[in-house]
Structures are given as C-alpha cells and as structure tokens.
Amino acid sequence: MTTIKTLVLGLITLAVAACSGNKTTDTAGENDSTTTNISTTMAKSNKEKGVELLKAIETGAGEPIAYINPHQYTQHNLGAADGLAGFGELLKALPPNSAKVKTVRAFEDGNYVFTHTEYDFFGPKIGFDIFRFEDGLIVEHWDNLQETPKQPNPSGHTMIDGPATSTDTAKTEENKKLVRQFVDDILVNGKMDKLAGYFNGDNYTQHNPQIPDQLSGLGKTLGELSKQGVTLKYDTIHKVLGEGNFVLVVSEGHFGKSYNAFYDLFRVENGKIAEHWDVIEPIPAKENWKNGNGKFGF
C-alpha cells in the first residue's frame, strides 16, 4: 500500500526538476505507480484530476502528481509555502496515516475546478478547494477550511450533506449573476428590504452549523447576533464560480471582530436560492503568512 511518502517524494522531485529547468512529466517515487503517461493524464477531465489529487493526500498515490505543472504552481493557502516544495513540506508535517479525504461535490467552470470536501487534515475539517488549470495542468490553488462541528445544525443538517450533482447547466451564467447580486445586495451592502425577493417564500435549506432552515430562521439568527453586538459584513467579492444550479462565491469581510475569508456555496432552484453551505476561515496576520500570494489574488 502506498503512503503519503510517495506523494511527498514525487512533489519534491517535480520541484527540483522545475528549479533546474528540466521539463518532465514523470515523477520519482517508491515504485512505478509514480510514473504517469502524459496521454493518460490529458485524457481525464480537470474535475477528475482535482478530485484525484485531493484523494492522494490520503492514499499517497503518485499518479496525480503529474496533474500539477512543475514549473508553475501558485499557492494561496497561507499555511503553506509557495510552489510544489511548500505543498510537500505541508504533507510531511502530517502525522503518519492520519489524513482522510472524501470529496462530496466537484464542479467545473472554465479553467477552474472547485470542490467541497470532508477532511481529516490536522484534525476533522470541511473545506472548499479551487484549482486553476492551464493546458490541462494545475497551476494555482486556493482553499478555505473550517473545523467540523461535533453536532448537526439546529435543523439536523451537516456542513456537507445534501444534493451533490449539478443540473441546469445551460443556466450557469444566469445563476451566477443571481447569486452574485444576492451577496452584493444583502451581505455587502445590507439591503435587507431585497432579501425576500431572492427566495421562494420561506423555503430555504441551511447547512451553516449555527443557523436553522427557512428564511425566517436566517433572519432570526441574524437578529439575535445583532442583539449581542455581533455583525456580519462582507467587504469584497473576489470570485464567483458556477456549474449549473451550484454557485460558489469567494469573499472577505468581518464576522464579529474576526476578519475572514468566506466561501459560500448556493444551490439555485427555479430562479431562487434554495440551499446554502459555507466555510468561514479567519485570515491570519500577514507576518504569519508562509507565502506572499495572499488568500485571494484571482
């Protein structure tokens, strides 16, 4: 059985090759599983490549290493150094056989793939990952991670359950426009008088750990937070990605006194917002960053 060591060795080999200027699509490892034929690599969809690379964190499989461009890999996880070497060092720090990866949703929008994953990665977490591809290879990565709550939310939902397959792909751009306008109106500019217009009555399924279902449940929770002096304010929308009826919005702003990255995934049904998942991660002080690329930089 392969281990994470295989993946780390392959990443380091690719990083060395990139620094020396030797272009290669082969990777070194403990056995032949770390060598991938380029025709096989290019035959897979970008979505498949992203999911397989994430799963390799658990299995140590060497083949997905070839999905990363060894000469260009920009890292936006601020806890990892830039490039392939930084990714390898992060994996080396994992306790042996501790990583678990279960990707529940994967979507593709142009050169971007975005995934929704249940992790055990330095502890149980829920995460969104975004990969940017050029010529079939991963050249850039963003993510947002949040500790997995021990209990379901007030309506019994977890951060990861619910529908996972997109529909209405012909309406992708229409749905992206709707969701972006919702975030801009309500979360950025606080135009609460427009809130009801984005929903089908009180019908709304919520996966945030603290908020119950229904639009009225959202309103009640926000009202209770306001009474406690806790505000939720988005400052900037950085990216909107979508596939059919699923739309991911990447933003930054304040939740109480904390400055955060917000990744919000919405499911649209008949032109209205029907379901919501999110991951909120505090943005560390700049002096603690392990790379200079920033959390966003789309």
What is the general shape? Answer: globular
Q: CATH class of the largest domain, anyone? A: Alpha Beta
Main sheet: strand order: 1-5-4-3-2
Annotated CATH architecture of the largest domain? Roll
What is the element string, with H for helices and E for strands? HHHEHEEEEHEHEEEE
Total strand segments: 10
Biggest pleated sheet: 5 strands, mixed
Q: Helix proportion of residues, in percent?
A: 25-40%
N/C terminus separation: 38 Å
- Helices, by number, come to 6
Mean pLDDT: 89
Total separate domains = 2
Unreliable sequence segments: 23-37
- The proportion of strand residues reads 25-35%
Structural class: alpha+beta
Determine the CATH topology of the largest domain. Nuclear Transport Factor 2, Chain: A
Keywords: Signal
Description:
This protein has two domains: 4-148, Nuclear Transport Factor 2, Chain: A (Roll); 169-286, Nuclear Transport Factor 2, Chain: A. Helix content is 26%, strand content 30%. The chain has helices at 4-20, 38-43, 46-59, 83-92, 172-188, 215-227; strands spanning 74-75, 100-109, 112-120, 124-134, 137-147, 205-206, 232-243, 246-255, 258-269, 272-282. The two termini are 38 Å apart. Mean pLDDT is 89; it is low at 23-37.
